[in-house]
Amino acid sequence: EATYYSTGEVQESEFDADGQLTSAVDYVTNESGVTIYTTKGHEEQSLPASVAAQLEKSNVKTAEVNLLIEGLPEDCAALLLYAPAVDLSADELAIVRDYLSGGGKVTLFLPDGSIPAEKLPNLCALLAEYGMTMADGYIADTDRYYQNSYYNIFPIVSTGHSMFEGLPDDAVVLLSGARGMLSGTPAREEITLSTMLRTSENGFAVTEDGKQVQNTYVLAASADELLESEKHARLTVIGAPSLIASDIIDRFANLSNLTIFTDVMLYGQDNVSNISIPAKSLALSYNTIPTANLWSLIFVGVIPLAVIGVGSYVCIRRRRA
User: Fold this and answer.
1) Topology classification of domain 14-287
2) How far apart are CA 6 and CA 19, in angstroms?
3) What pTM value is reported for the model?
4) Where do runs of H (alpha helix) occur along 59-218?
């Protein structure tokens, strides 16, 4: 990919030969792919173009749908609600529930933390049915944060989760402006709720009026329900649209954000292959260190003091000798 400026100079921004070749081979060797529908009509955020392109490499198409006007298409392999700012209507909630009861796969990115949960009764009802409660405010973590901002969080990743195929044990994820959840008891025994991302015990939900509530907050969770038809319904809820924000995934080369998203969206899908290779950014990338403050303290404080202490001890001992 290249950008063209007014000077007529072409500047390459990323290299994607490996990804395009792998996608082409997968396209001709597998059956027709699937379609993931994203909802519209609730002031949702737009799916980043780079993320849609990554899904397309796995033979997955994305399309928008207005549930209230169009209903849910029959070829819907998964439904994505990307941070709606307006609640679902009662009819739309019924459509989503009916889709899940037939073995559907739904992924919800929570609305912005500035929107009180009381203004989202239908979304809250859906979450409660699967054992999740939406918290108000933005999540901060005083133990796991990046660059002096408690709201830029390195969540604890459940790398052994069944949906995370091939995710390394040391996977690093960065979230910004996340909204949290608390896990509870699902409405039916057949529902199994599992946490994928969470804060440390020093997580805080901070509302705009300054109220802070400390807890271990769930930042991503998946609820799987075994149906009588032996099919599995799945509701996955992610607390931060920033998981796939371009300014994060394009800037940091060592993050697993995009891998986690594609694992979630492609898990259990037929006729797709989760082997797509992301484009290699040619821009300057930045490394992330989850325990940066600890290492800063060691290198800036502990080691210099230790050197000074040892040096002073040696000097005093030599003078006495």
Assistant:
1) Rossmann fold (3.40.50)
2) 30
3) 0.79
4) 67-70, 90-101, 121-129
